[in-house]
Amino acid sequence: MCLGIPGQIVAVTDAARMMAMAEVSGVRRAVNVACIAQGPLEDLVGHWALIHVGFAMAVIDEDEAAKTLEALRGLGEAQETLEAMAAGDAALEGQI
Amino acid sequence: MSLRDTRVTLAHGGGGTAMRDLIEEVFTSVFAPEMMEDQARLMAAGLQEPGARLAFTTDSFVVDPVEFPGGDIGTIAVCGTVNDLAVGGARPLWLSAAFIIEEGTEVALLRRIVASMQAEAEAAGVRIVTGDTKVVGRGMADKLFVTTAGVGVIPPGRDLQAGHIRAGDVVLVNGVLGDHGAAILAARGDMALSVDLVSDCQGLGHLMEAVLAAAPGTRAARDATRGGVASVLNEMAAAAGLAIEIDEAALPLRTEVRGMCEILGLDPLYLANEGRVVVVVPEAEAEAALAAMRARPDGTGAVAIGRVMPGRAGQVTMRTLFGGTRIVDMLVGEQLPRIC
Amino acid sequence: MKYADEFRDPRAARALLDKIADVTAAIGATAENPKRIMEICGGHTHAIFRYGLDKLVPEGLDFIHGPGCPVCVLPMARVDECVELAEDPRVIFTTFGDAMRVPGSRKSLLQAKADGADIRMVYSPLDALEIARRNPEREVVFFGLGFETTTPSTALSIQAAAAEGLENFSVFCNHITVPPPIKALLDDPYMRLDGFVGPGHVSMVIGIHPYDFIARDYGKPIVVAGFEPLDLLQSVLMVLEQIRDGRAEVENQYARVVPEHGNPVSLAAMADVYEPRPSFEWRGLGEIDASGLRIRPAYAAYDAEVKFGVGYGAARRNVPEPEGCACGAVMTGRIKPVACPQFGRGCTPEMPLGALMVSSEGACAAYYQYGGARAEAV
Question: Could you report the predicted ipTM of this complex, rounded to two decimals?
Fold first, then answer.
């Protein structure tokens, strides 16, 4: 039961009911932000949250995302170097 | 003006003057058929050519809501039937239009729908030459159901069918996929999603003529309506007894359509389109066919999405972004929004 | 899409797959003697097949598809109770789309709708609340389904209804929790598992410590994972590395979404509204102690079981599984979907016999739809 997707909080729509507008790839939906509200709801605007069944369930931690991505990018670049070396070796073999 | 009612009543289906007034003021004054007999009498010059064939098709249209961003039930009733003719290589000429109207439907709504039908017909170069109306009690229909039938002429020498597809052929589409299905889903409102998307509904007759001129070896074409591109590909693969492999990275999708699909857990390959065609051409003609489509406003987003392969008969697979493959099956039932 | 597309980069995927192959070889896992890793969550099962990951990992690695699909583990008796509620003429029955096609012993919700029941699919329990506000003369029942990811949403909705005095709104509670069935699987003498990929979105609510017992008491590694393909591959690699290094720890690959201690507001709302049932029935697994939730007496006015006298609150019926259905054996990882004699014959997505063929999270439906077995046979 896990379909959750990242959306950006773009506006507060009904502070009394803890509702804000979230945007996912240009699609907007009013979501409940009770689970992620820590101060004034306005502070949430601009933040990214994980949206599940109309509720913002967690604020996405940009630093943690960047860390994970950096590790993955490092892997990708290493892979590219390996592939380039393999291609170079193949080309050399072809010449001989 | 003798039609004073703002809403259709059962009297408008009763066969008397009320019905006559509705038909004349709302329908025939706009469609302007040549005569008011119970039939259209047609002269088909194209049919005189030896080898020319008549194409004849029919389709019923129900959509909720009946008016949506980018069109209404009338637009798709004309486009759908024009497209069914066009993808078979026929030049669409005439349509019939039959309306089942729910008691209480606003006359102004009917007028808007009739106007958009006439506009689409003019754009497609077809005439609406005969028709019918019936009125049913409240709750017996959802505002309006429309049935159109269409007649066109296939010029000599043209023979598009999925059975002609060969291994190595290239699979093309004329633009981004799923706009219609996603726009309708948003317009229906029960998921409370708002998005700037308009239906892709459009007539494809002129586009098909351009493709066939540029790529005369074109094997087959189908418009990807209900069931989406996935269903068309499955039908084609089954008819050809071949496999089709599409490339996930090549699928043209608008960001908003991807967003809708991510939120509701839907697969864009199964979303309905009303102005998108899947064309299969020999590899040597693929570039010419793409260029012909891209030169037109109804084909600017044309791309190759896959290829016909020897493989298992009837199987459609997709190469995922990671080089994995998965089966793209026929849709089971209807796609339901999910949270899992 | 931000926070999604970056985690679908094929180049990094190839690098991860190479490393997975290296570690798999290093620990001596082979097709004959594979390492068996269970992805607990059905969302992970779906992603594995959607991206074709099952065919990209080495043969020495075997994905066992866990019980984390709430639709799949819902016993048939509960589906029957849903249909019964939905057929009550006073009721507007609201549900997520997932549950519509699940077969009950008489009919599915989709069939009940065709027979005239007022059943409405919604995206959110908030939409069910809105339907209740607009239809004060009708009883609006929401089908509360799902694990800890979804439970806070219905808890907050019940609290909102109570605050507003919205007395025509109630929840038919079928919420279940992840840790108890994991413990049941680990206690099953027939089960052999070498590690777990943990459910990311459940964990964003409950944090990572509820899994401590898996590492501490059973000596198995578990890595809480995100749902993009790179998340999954990286998590699998982390599990394999733990195996290689002889470690058994709870690790968090999905730290961008999962806080160590979960979400305090969600946890408080759940604790306020729900309490554990003594036991709850899981399809294929049987009754598991303290694995289901019920609405606390303080919120009885919003409890459809109490309001309509159905389910665990009333006389329970025993509904046997359909004959020949091997969902239980598949669910516990004893057999692969294709080994079920009914797979693709008496049980297809068009005519599902068992629940695993219904939900797209179900292992059988995923196998069938995305061709786990069929594509390999080409």
Answer: 0.92
